[in-house]
Amino acid sequence: MMRIVIDQPVEELVPHQGRMRLLDRVLEGDADSLLAEVTVREDSLFYADGVVGGWVGIEYMAQAVAAWAGWHARKRGGTPRVGFLLGTRRYECSRPTFKPGETLRIEVHRQFSADNGLGQFDCTLRIGTEQVATAALTVYEPQPGQDLGRGNTDG
To answer: pTM above 0.70?
Structure first.
């Protein structure tokens, strides 16, 4: 499938605001995948002791999935909605930390998505040509109007 350049700012594609928005750029995508970038900065919400922990890679991946969903919502005339990272079958990262100034490329590829909002994405994180992390993320995007309240409060 041919990828196209995505020329929308990341703020228009993900529902995250302020310091919770971690991605810097969305580069390209197609019906099933998206490529995004983030440059590790000292003002990152997760910056501590001169680095960002390698475990944050999973959140970079989750936000790239959110950008994929937001991009497709915009193409349909909708708006990006908050979704949920339900979990991962695996997260493997060869680096314990990411250093300020490093640019990470995050690629997500949809394995499946269902009408009920459940989906799974294979994700890869690279620094330059080096693959540093992989994961399979299970995500959930509530449907418009779906009540996510407390459920039964009868007792």
So the answer is: yes
